[in-house]
Write a structure and sequence with these properties.
Largest sheet: 7 strands, mixed
Helix content: 10-25%
Low-confidence stretches: 1-52
Number of helices: 18
Strand content: 15-25%
Structural class: alpha+beta
Radius of gyration: 30 Å
């Protein structure tokens, strides 16, 4: 993928895999306790007792007067005072009925905390959760610098002290981690993790503090007490030093599954092998993972989509109903982390260009031996994160690599190390560890009950011959680009540039070469989480159009297409001016881009919507054409819309060209408020990414959606999947991702999430495995249970005319009394194989009896029987029993 650097201090789209903070460095100063005096702009209630070791605290709200303060207002929520002697505020979020629910503190006058020198300023509070599910609170702090967004998780029935870092040296320190471990000396205090937005806060003008939940499937409540300002909290000067051990684990905390020696990795391997043997593939699966006990439709030899009995479904190559459950990112590409070292660049070999597919260099771009003497430190912040790194000459040293580019962190390029790959090597000593890892990964997917791999699977596993997969392509090339103004992963392609079609063709061919027409390839995702815009405002909705109209048509093909469309509609520039309320002098001036487009958004909305549709249709049509040219038998699975990057126009445009609509949705589930549009577009749909994580297993950041424990993480996974399985428009759901992010952050952008099914030592999380097995074991009964097929054939049972059985994944009908005659062994015996297509039409099989007037489908053609027939193939004789059906 082609990435560009960007200023991550501005707000990033909610729900994205976001990059780290601004590239500032400063030494962490450990503050001492000093007296604090807030300015008159701060509403002071009383001085809080210093019982938490947090430094100098002044209470803002303690609720002891029994009133919810006037400046605290709920939205789609209820607030009340609870408690007798020690009063607190309870907030009940009405989340089940509302996608967004919140309460906000709007101080009047605004808070000004700038007039006293302090090494650090934070907001602390006591939070407890009276419910039986944890609550993830997103917290926004608004100032003239922007909005700083953090997140906390309050476990079910638990609580404690929570701290929001407002201004500190730690915020100035760019470690390259999405979230640092807490810098506070008091480790019993729960530090809010950074999510997105600004890391800088103007402490002289803080206008609002908002606590909200979004996309929850169940109501939640929280009890709040003692909201206070904290200055000069005692710090831990070594909070980043020696963060990870030789295995890549968090060295500073203990947790279930943590190892202390390499032998434990091999012991885990033996234990897991027994577990995999004891949990074979669910018995109801076809050769491709479809529902062997259900209806059998026409077999085409490849995957397809059908609407069957009122619900969308995939159909496997053998004709069985199929639902895709799987895990993304089963590869090594995202396992490295930057070390803080680099080499003289003129000594480095030329690294391969960005891959067009899910593949990547297996050696992770290990630098050539001649460059090693030039190794030097470029970031002491990074180098001190590691308790130890191996020597290049050691076996563990084989897992160093190099990244030519990063999106965030204190280094823009440099040396990397993969602890996960090193641990895999320890797991399989004396063998081809990568091949053993691939084989074990396939075995896991099958034993855990998954029906497919998700996106970004190591292409070396494509030919495993046991479990299907989705392929992936990145459209990279030297084509022109446009912008939405929210180009999170990079600028948007200009699909009207002929070079874009060339790039799409090259990517489609690269994917086709890897897939090699395999029937196990379900389909292809092309690109990922493009910045299409969102409906938060007119500017974010139509950013592509606004930006493109401001460009010169002579150098921007999309602008030329937009200008052509407007001129074709209005004919005269005056007609356009009358509609938009503008004074554009001519079509030539409009094409130049150097014109005032006016400020009446509503007047322009219809045209901007049409232009956005024109742009999106050109993109999807181009990609569809190129995929269909080289992979006509495989499904186009879309571009994986992010929740922060989709608009109605773009979704509707995609639906005209893709076979499967794909979405990445990082929420607790699909909230009805946000997903009612599925009924409107009526397309087979798939969730390409979701996850939940926790900080209880060593990761400083839980992930975009947090849980209170590993067991709750598994429960949340199961509930999300159940919702997808029950949805008539969904044909699959894929978890992101296979292995945890590195504790020290993946090299691309610093993500350090607990989102894996396996840890950095390749240890499966037992709670997740158990949940997956239970969900996948019941998958087809839950999805298609009302369509259940008859019992399996029993050789000791007598069957009479008209009875049905299943045998070897096929459905059979008894033509007469029979006992002991095995179905499928004769085309003239008692058993007739019954196959139908998605619309219920009979599909011809050699053993089935047809009589005059019966209609069948064979190889896509419909035939009518002229007389009784069996085992006479349609289309083979003009004088036989079959004639092509008339319209």
């Amino acid at each position: 993928m082609m990435f560009v650097h960007h200023d991550t201090s501005t707000a990033a789209p909610p729900g994205a895999h976001r990059s780290g903070g601004t590239r500032r460095t400063a030494a962490l100063v450990v503050a001492s306790l000093t007296a604090m005096a807030l300015t008159a702009a701060v509403p002071i209630a009383s001085a809080a007792d210093d019982t938490q070791g947090l430094g100098n605290e002044t209470t803002l709200y303690d609720f002891q007067d029994g009133q919810v303060p006037a400046e605290i207002g709920p939205y789609k929520a209820q607030s009340s005072i609870v408690g007798d002697d020690d009063k607190k505020m309870r907030v009940d979020f009405e989340a089940e009925e509302n996608f967004y629910s919140s309460f906000a503190v709007r101080p009047d006058p605004v808070w000004d905390w700038s007039q006293q020198d302090s090494e650090s300023i934070g907001i602390a509070m006591e939070l407890t959760n009276p419910g039986d599910r944890s609550i993830q609170l997103i917290i926004d702090l608004a100032s003239t610098s922007g909005v700083a967004t953090r997140s906390v998780n309050v476990p079910a029935g638990g609580g404690g002290t929570y701290y929001f870092d407002v201004d500190s040296p730690a915020l100035d320190l760019d470690s390259g981690l999405r979230a640092d471990p807490s810098w506070l000396a008091d480790k019993s205090v729960n530090s809010a993790v950074w999510m997105w937005g600004s890391k800088e806060t103007d402490t002289s003008h803080i206008s609002q503090l908002t606590f909200y939940v979004a996309g929850l499937l169940h109501d939640r409540s929280v009890v709040v007490d003692d909201i206070r300002v904290v200055r000069d909290a005692p710090g831990d000067p070594d909070y980043l030093t020696g963060l990870v051990d030789e295995f890549g684990q968090n060295a500073k905390v203990s947790y279930e599954g943590k190892i202390s020696k390499a032998a434990e990795i091999r012991q885990q391997r033996v234990k897991e092998a027994k577990d995999l043997r004891n949990h074979p593939v669910p018995s109801d699966r076809s050769s491709f993972g479809g529902w062997a006990y259900g209806p059998r439709l026409e077999a085409t030899g490849n995957f397809r989509v059908e609407k069957y009995e009122g619900r969308w479904t995939l159909v496997d190559p053998e004709g069985y109903l199929y639902f895709s459950t799987g895990i993304d990112n089963a590869r090594m590409f995202d396992s490295p982390t930057t070390t803080g070292y680099d080499f003289d660049h003129d000594t480095l070999q030329e690294f391969p260009p960005p891959y067009l597919t899910a593949g990547g260099p297996e050696d992770l771009n290990r630098v050539q031996k001649s460059a090693l003497p030039t190794r030097h430190e470029i970031s002491d912040v990074r180098t001190r994160l590691f308790s130890e790194l191996p020597d290049y000459s050691s076996s563990a040293g084989e897992h160093f690599g190099y990244t030519p580019e990063t999106l965030a962190g204190p280094v823009s390029r440099g040396e990397t190390y993969s602890f996960y790959k090193a641990n895999v090597d320890r797991k399989y000593p004396g063998s081809d560890s990568m091949e053993s890892w691939r084989e074990n990964t396939v075995d896991r997917m099958l034993s855990w009950g998954f029906t497919s791999f998700g996106n970004w699977t190591d292409p070396e596993m494509y030919d495993n011959g046991q479990i299907p997969y989705f392929a992936h392509g990145w459209i990279n090339g030297d084509f022109k680009t446009v912008s939405t103004g929210q180009d999170y992963w990079g600028p948007m392609p200009d699909p009207f540039d002929p070079a874009f079609a060339d790039a799409a063709a090259a990517t489609a061919q690269a994917v086709a070469d890897e897939v090699d027409d395999s029937p196990y390839a379900i389909g292809v995702f092309m690109d990922n989480e493009l910045s299409w815009g969102n409906t938060d405002s007119f500017a974010t909705h139509y950013g592509i159009v606004s930006n493109t109209l401001g460009r010169d048509a002579a150098t921007t093909p999309a602008k030329a297409a937009f200008a052509d469309a407007l001129e074709q509609k209005y004919e005269s520039i005056g007609a356009l001016n009358d509609t938009w309320g503008t004074m554009i002098p001519s079509w030539t001036a409009l094409r130049s881009g150097n014109v005032d487009l006016g400020s009446d958004d509503e007047a322009k909305r219809e045209d901007y919507s049409a232009l956005l549709t024109l742009y999106a249709e050109k993109y999807f049509a181009t990609v569809d054409t190129e995929l269909d040219r080289v992979m006509p038998d495989h499904l186009y699975a879309g571009s994986r819309f992010a929740s922060w990057g989709r608009t109605p126009e773009v979704v509707e445009a995609a639906a005209k060209y893709v076979d499967i609509m794909s979405y990445n949705e990082y929420r607790e589930g699909l909230h009805p408020d946000e997903w009612a549009f599925l009924e409107d577009i009526d397309m087979p749909s798939l969730i390409g990414e979701f996850h939940m994580g926790t900080t209880t297993s060593g990761q400083p950041h839980p992930g975009l959606i947090s849980a209170g424990s590993q067991s709750e993480r598994a429960d949340m996974y199961a509930e999300y999947m159940e919702q997808l399985i029950d949805n008539p428009y969904m044909v699959g759901g894929h978890w992101f991702q296979y292995a945890d992010s590195p504790v020290t952050g993946r090299s691309l952008d610093g993500e350090n999430y607990n989102i894996g099914f396996v840890s950095v030592t390749d240890r499966p999380y037992p709670e997740m495995v158990s949940a997956a097995r239970e969900i996948n074991e019941e998958l087809y009964d839950r999805r298609f249970g009302d369509l259940h097929s008859p019992d399996a054939w029993n050789q000791d049972r007598t069957y009479t005319t008209g009875e049905q059985v299943t045998h070897r994944s096929s459905l059979y009908l008894a033509g007469w009394w029979t006992r002991g005659d095995e179905p499928g062994t004769s085309t003239t015996g008692a058993w007739q194989e019954i196959v139908e297509d998605a619309s219920g039409r009979a599909v011809w099989t050699p053993s089935r009896v047809f009589t005059a007037g019966d209609s069948v489908v064979h190889q896509g053609v419909e035939y009518d029987a002229r007389w009784w027939t069996r085992n006479q193939e349609p289309g083979k004789s003009n004088n036989g029993p079959w004639v092509v059906a008339s319209d």
